[in-house]
Design a protein that fits this description.
The chain is an alpha+beta fold and 204 residues long. The protein has helices spanning 8-15, 36-39, 46-61, 65-77, 82-91, 94-100, 107-115, 145-158, 193-199, and strands at residues 119-121, 124-125, 138-141, 167-170, 175-178. The chain is globular, with a radius of gyration of 18 Å.
């Protein structure tokens, strides 16, 4: 399943706020489609509730179904709550770290920065958005005029963003650092990760 490239507000109306997907807010409250107004009145099935939570992860972090399934398999093998481990794996992706540092307005824009070689990890160029960051990793902007200008434009557009406790950022040197792993209360996406684990119970 390829990445979604259609209208983003349509997805927001269906799933709710997705901070990594888009910063736009829809003025319409009903879900998209001809019968959107009546969908809110209908009782959702247990399957549709779990599917909705899974789709939130997919669209917010910009990953496809196969990638999410692979992350779920890793989370199942790790110690601790599978749901929280899954969220932490997704949060430690390089594209998400770039977004959380405020270098890009969305994870989609952060992925472009990484893909085009504007980002350095520990002074080495990394162009893989799914790269897993680790504690003590230093995230910087490549020292050329185009990269610095692009990131500074994004920083001015974004305004002041709340920085999670596991990250540090210097707007003067354009240098960020991963101090540790993200805590559950600092994950901005409103989601019930246990429902995602239940959705994949038969597949993992």
């Amino acid at each position: 399943m390829s990445r979604y490239r259609g209208p983003r507000l349509r997805i927001v109306r269906r799933l709710g706020e997705l901070p990594g997907f888009t910063r736009k807010v829809s003025k319409k409250e009903n879900p998209p489609g001809q019968h959107g107004a009546t969908q809110n009145k209908q009782k959702a099935s247990q399957y549709s509730i779990r599917l909705r939570e899974k789709q939130k992860l997919r669209f917010n972090y910009g990953i496809n179904e196969r990638q999410l399934l692979n992350y779920m398999k890793k989370a199942k093998k790790a110690k601790g709550s599978s749901g929280e481990v899954l969220l932490k794996l997704l949060e430690m992706r390089l594209d998400n770290i770039v977004f959380r540092l405020g270098m890009a307005p969305t994870i989609v824009a952060a992925r472009q920065l990484v893909n085009h070689g504007h980002i350095l990890v520990n002074d080495s160029s990394v162009d893989i958005p799914s790269y897993t960051c680790r504690p003590k990793d230093r995230i910087a902007v490549k020292a050329n005029q185009s990269s610095i200008k692009l990131v500074k434009n994004y920083l001015e557009t974004n305004g002041a963003m709340t920085l999670p406790e596991h990250l540090t950022w210097s707007s003067e040197t354009l240098l960020g650092e991963v101090k540790g792993f993200v805590q559950r209360n600092w994950i901005s996406l409103q989601i019930n990760e246990l429902l995602v684990v239940e959705y994949y119970a038969r597949k993992v």
